[in-house]
Amino acid sequence: MKKFKRLLAVFMSAVILLCIMPISSFAAQGIRAVETQLNVSPGTDINNWDEYFTVNTAGVEVASFLVFDDSYGVADEIFEIGDDYYLEIVLCTTDGYAFPDSEFEFEGAFINGEEAQWYLISEEDGSNYIVIEYIYNLGGSISAVDLALDIYGDMAAGSFYEYITINSNGIDFYYGNYHPIKVYDAEGNDVDYFASENSYTFEIFLEPKEDCWFNKDDSGSFAMESVTVNGEAVEYYIDSYTSNGYYEYIKIVAQITAKTSNYIKDVSFDIDADLVGVDVNNWESFITIHTPGLIFENYLDDPAVWAVNSKGDYVDTLEKGDIYTLYICFRADEGYFISQANETFDSLKINGEEYGNYYFSDYIAEDGKYIYYVCVEKMVDLVGDGFFDKLIYFFKTLFADIRDFFLSLFVEQY
After folding, report:
1. What are the φ/ψ torsions at residue 407 (nearest 5 degrees)?
2. Comparing C-alpha atoms, which of 193, 343, 198 is closest to residue 256?
3. Which residue pairs from 178-186 have beta carbons closer than 8 angstroms and sit at least 24 positions apart in sequence?
4. From CA 228, how far away is CA 166, in angstroms rounded?
5. What is the per-residue DSSP string for 239-290?
6. Are 153 and 258 in contact (CB under 8 A)?
7. Is residue 78 within 8 Å of 140, Cβ to Cβ?
8. DSSP character for 216?
9. Of 115, 149, 145, whose CA–CA distance to 132 is shortest?
10. CA angle at residue 282 from 279 to 283, to 5 degrees?
11. Of 325, 326, 339, nearest in space to 371 by CA
């Protein structure tokens, strides 16, 4: 009996002790800062982030890890020197640990000892997350330079983005001489346009991107493994200068012969006269192309042909009783070219008649070349020529305008 009373006394003492202890004694351990390590080299697989990113703070782990390129698209499979990468890292805590409820109580998130941009997310269930946003530029030594250079007759010499592709990572065009490309003909004269089958001398100036440099040997002299244009070794010079910093550039000299022109200077296509009920997504059913080398296509996955009604709404089907604007986009097929140099064609005809309501737009392809698109705006009147057709259209648009006006007033009031 005495033994039982003694055990009961110990138990009651423990209960009393637990009752008088502060609740904070059982709270999760607070984390005020996070230290991480990022170790990336050229060729590292972007998807294997657990191999190059480490969290050094106990009680913290990665909830998600995303890498974007400099256009905020999903980055390629591997890291390349000279490219900017945008890292979005979401951190969470393990059992027994917790981030603070206020950003003012958090000291910071660090990558390789450098404080990164971060913010706190609080979920409804009481859990908190730290989101790190970090811009990372992978530098490195450049030991090889390779360019692709294809020119055609009638091509503008100044539109070098059309015919030069940089195949090597970590370098870009150098504008220290105001223009990265100089072109001369056989007599040493400047060139505005290329002529088919003529040979030209190119001087191309390139520089390393941020945190990159041209390779040097043990003596400190520049030592490139290869410098090629169209796969063939060419003459080159590397120089450096100091002006509020240290800078390097390479001058490449190459002889290139212009190929026979495949430039599209005249455009012709027909649009069916009867467009009532047509599906604009099936443009092949009512548009006929007469110009070789044209592709009806738009960039960024937008449709090649689309339509807007008189109210500015996008539509799939053209119906009788309304006025539409057709937008028709096209580009040159492989082996053909459209130049933005003059922003005009010698001729653009629709149904055999000259038409001038079009504009040029450009898009940078994955290989770095500019692809030029042309967009034609064509009004299509499906109201009809009769008096009553026009009268019905007038009242329909009038009532629609009145309706939209009162709807806007209602929205502003409520």
Report:
1. -65, -40
2. 198
3. 180/204, 180/205, 180/206, 181/157, 181/205, 183/157
4. 11
5. EEEESSSEEEEEEEEEEEEPBPP-B--EEEEEE-S--TT-BTT-GGGTEEE-
6. yes
7. no
8. B
9. 115
10. 100
11. 339
Confidence at residue 327, expressed as pLDDT on a 0 to 100 scale = 94
Task: Give the list of residues 6+ apart from residue 245 with CB closer than 8 angstroms, or none.
Answer: none
The span from the CA of 188 to the CA of 364, in Å, is: 32
Q: Which residues have CB under 8 Å from 385's CB, separation 6+?
A: none
* 7-47 residue pLDDT tens: 445 445 554 545 554 444 445 688 999 999 999 988 899 99
404-to-80, 280, 399, 411 alpha-carbon distances in Å: 53, 26, 9, 10
d(CA 288, CA 294): 11
**Element containing residue 391 per DSSP (H, E):** helix 387-413
Q: How many Cα neighbours within 13 Å face the side chain of 214?
A: 23
Of 294, 280, 267, the residue nearest 350 (C-alpha): 267
pTM of the model: 0.63
Task: Enumerate residues 6+ apart whose C-beta is below 8 A from 31.
Answer: 57, 59, 60, 93, 97, 98, 99, 100
Cα(316)–Cα(302) distance, integer angstroms: 14
Q: Which residues of the chain have pLDDT under 70?
A: 1-28, 71, 300, 339-343, 366-369, 384-414
CA 82 to chain centre: 16
Supply 232's token pair: 């063939």
First to last CA, the chain: 78
Determine the Cα–Cα distance for residues 84 and 253; give it in Å rounded to an integer: 29
Which residue has tokens 């996955």? 301
- Going by C-alpha positions, the residue among 204, 203, 201 that lies closest to residue 256 is 201
Sheet holding 144-149, edge to edge: 164-166, 144-149, 226-229, 232-233
d(CA 376, CA 304): 11
